[in-house]
Amino acid sequence: MSAGPDFVLRPWEMSDLPLVREAAQDPYIPLITTIPPRYSDQAAEAFVRRQWDRAATGAGYPFAIVRSRDRRPVGAIGLWLRDLPEGRASIGYWMVPYGRGQGVTRAALRTVTGWALRDLGIPRLQLFIEPWNTASARIAVDVGYRHEGLLRGWQQVGDERRDMAVYGLLNSDGPVDGRAVTAH
């Protein structure tokens, strides 16, 4: 799936182990994801297999974000369907340092959001972002998500429960990326 002219979203591959290694070295990514906090090839392979299992079982759609020009993976984005029976899904994303500041997170979020709302017809999408993470919040708002409030002690992050700001986007909110969300 194209995320603009410079990046694509694709299923995880075993060739993505260097990306898992880079993410495991980040001080924050392993705290909020299932990236192994201590890298080993075995732990990284298990991570990739979990992504395959999530897709195979319908738990979600995990994607590696890959730079087109050199096929280098720079991050990940996932559409998680645990709450789909209630008409909502959540999106999570992360980017390793060499992928940041290039607009790729925004493009990937816009791509997955449009696909989830338009093609999959999911009524509500939501993001959970720590209040200090202003860059991620800015990206969410730029794509069309609305800040809806603060969920106190919402998520375990490392050794503590942390607050999360919730951002939501409804299928009925209007166009994403200049195109209608739903067909009329």
Beginning-to-end CA distance, first to last residue: 24 Å
What is the CATH superfamily label?
Gcn5-related N-acetyltransferase (GNAT)
Assign a percent range to the helix content.
25-40%
Inertia-based shape: globular
State the helix count: 5
Secondary-structure blueprint of this entry?
Blueprint: E1 7-10, H1 17-25, H2 29-32, H3 41-57, E2 60-67, E3 73-80, E4 88-95, H4 104-119, E5 124-129, H5 134-143, E6 146-157, E7 160-170
Parallel strand pairs: 4-5
Antiparallel strand pairs: 1-2, 2-3, 3-4, 5-7, 6-7
Organism: Streptomyces arboris
InterPro entries: Acyl_CoA_acyltransferase, GNAT_dom, Ribosomal_N-acetyltransferase
Protein name: GNAT family N-acetyltransferase
Description:
The protein is an alpha+beta fold. The chain has a single domain (7-173), classed as Aminopeptidase. The protein has 5 helices and 7 strands; from the N terminus they run βαααβββαβαββ. It has helices spanning 17-25, 29-32, 41-57, 104-119, 134-143, and strands at residues 7-10, 60-67, 73-80, 88-95, 124-129, 146-157, 160-170. A 7-stranded mixed β-sheet has the order 1-2-3-4-5-7-6, with helices on both faces. A hairpin with a 5-residue loop joins strand 2 (60-67) and strand 3 (73-80). Helix 4 (104-119) packs across helix 5. It starts with 6 loop residues before the first strand and ends in a 14-residue tail after the last strand. Residues 178-184 have low confidence and may be disordered.
